[in-house]
Amino acid sequence: MIQVTLTVMLFIISYTFYKLNVSICCTFILLALFTTENTPLNLACMAVECYIAICLPLRHMQICTVKRTLMLIGLIWTTSMLSVLPDLFITLATEPLDFFHTRVFCLRETAFRNPHIIKKRDITYIIYLVIVWFVIFYTYFKVLFTAKTASKDAKKARNTILLHGFQVLLCMATYAEPLLKHALHLWFPNYYTDSLFAT
Asked: What does the DSSP assignment read for 88-122?
């Protein structure tokens, strides 16, 4: 909900005011990126919890404690921050201070425009993609084989992990979005804002 609220709010502000101060834009973009990169990691962890509940039911209460869950949430946020904050530091190091007082159309590419940031983003997204899909497939097939032995809870968990897989697929569209946006800009240069709306 944080992610959806932030991105829709940023979208409306960008189209209402068209250009924002770079400092304000960077703040919105960073918050949106934290939550965007959290989502697939959250889904992977939820799939692991289903796997533990079905495949290791006697150890579930020992492994999935409130304290460990809070630690895991902290780890997910820390991972996202370590992934996103370098964008800010690279921008602070490479852009003149005047840049932060200018106004831009608020996109990640206009606020954080160093080419190294784009390469880092692509590498990060590929790593996330591989790890999260591996976790989803592993947990799904483990639960699937347990479900064949037929407990009702195992079948419910299998369906839950399928739902997580579908949600991860939707999240992974975020990782393909920069390439799609670039292609649409090349194909329809006069309709760039419409392309942004479509993506």
From this structure: HHHHHHHS-GGGGGSEE---HHHHS--HHHHHHHH
